[in-house]
Amino acid sequence: MSSDPIKNTPGPEAKNPFPQVNEAIGRYRWTICALVFFATTITYLDRNVLGLLKATLSENGVFGPDKAQQELNYSTVVICFQVAYAVGMLAAGRFIDWIGTKAGYAWSLFGWSVAAIGHAFGHHTWSFGFWRAALGFTEAGNFPAANKTMAEWFPKKERAFATGLYNSGANIGSIVAPLCVPYIASAWGWEWAFVLTGAVGLIWLAFWYKMYASPAAKLASGHLQRAEYDYIHSDKDEQAAEQADTKGARVSGAKLLTFRQTWAFVLGKFLTDPIWWFYLFWLPAFLGGENTRKINEYLAAHPGYSGAQADIPGIISWPFAVAVVYTVSTFGSIFGGWLPKKFINGGMDANKARKLAMFIFALFPLAVLLASRLGAINTWLAVGTIAIATAAHQAWSANIFTTVSDMFPKKAVASVTGLGGMAGAVGGILIARVAGLVLSHFTAIGKVELGYGILFVVCGSAYLTAWIIMHLLVPKFKQIQLGDS
Prior knowledge:
Layout: H1 18-25, H2 28-52, H3 54-59, H4 67-99, H5 101-118, H6 125-139, H7 142-153, H8 156-167, H9 169-188, H10 190-211, H11 215-221, H12 226-232, H13 236-244, H14 253-256, H15 260-301, H16 318-345, H17 350-363, H18 371-377, H19 379-407, H20 410-444, H21 448-473
């Protein structure tokens, strides 16, 4: 096995070894990262359409005629996605570990593209719920496959950074969606918004089949240099664990649940994934509600006003605001992967680097506690606090995904990721129902902003709670042997 190029890089290059490493050994692994990035972008492009068209779908009677009941019906559709996503996560991780990354990812993306297009044929709550469930079940394959790809193609020192890069695709999808979906719906009808966004995934499949294979296969075909192959496999603890696993047999889900490491990841995802779901599905409604509140307050104070509502002070373009939030989140995702890498390159132990980075990222979501209060002053102040919180979530996400490959051998990465994803989806189900009930109640009494304030308290405190629980369960992230008791 060749030595680590970073450690052998002399002089000032050691301060910033990343470009030199790529130049010396090749960079095909980053092509693979780009493919996963675009798949994740497509995932969130398809996933965001519902939230962006919530008002349009409500006006067209999809969620029923009663306004308060519409909130509950909308949350029901969201829950259909979440239930199917939870079940799909449990199945997808095992399926991808069994069938392999290439075929597993391809089947998943083909399935969710068809399901996304199918929304165009749903015209009431339950038919929409069916297609939403189909989307959730098939999209469940994205992150187990993506995380397994990162474990196969990147050494531990680069894994969080690569994860942060591909995970930023979630933000790019969330940026692109509000910039195009409302306009497609306005020009051609809401059905076409689902059809066109769903069709994008079918294009990705051609690139995936042409460009993806395992590092060993790419080495054999000449697309991967031996130096890069050796660099990818340079983590001695992982190699020792794989060599110790002489049987190489699949590990049952029941066996995985006997490890504290599994429960640390599962509980961390259960507590923090729902927060992202909440922002994803309710952020457009929150910002639209802030506009409505300001319009009503202004008209009450100026009963003779006859100008355009868009000219009322404090009114913002909520699609643009959503795009701003997810643009900021993109930088959070990349920074989230870069920071522990910076700590490690500075000589810090990988475990301490990961733990310290996650603690830092757990503090920033507390800013969202001020969102409702600041929104009453200026909606852009609320947008700013939510942007900070979503950026912190993506930074946290880049690291919590990487803890799986830190602690488990590659053959179990997708399965453990699936278990955590299922837990996150269950948490999403709970927050969707709670959000629906809370917002329905406060909408009925005319104080919806108070309902959002309560929900933001939950959103702000979840990450610090998760970090504490994970630290207590696993004081040190280190590779385990699945034969351990």
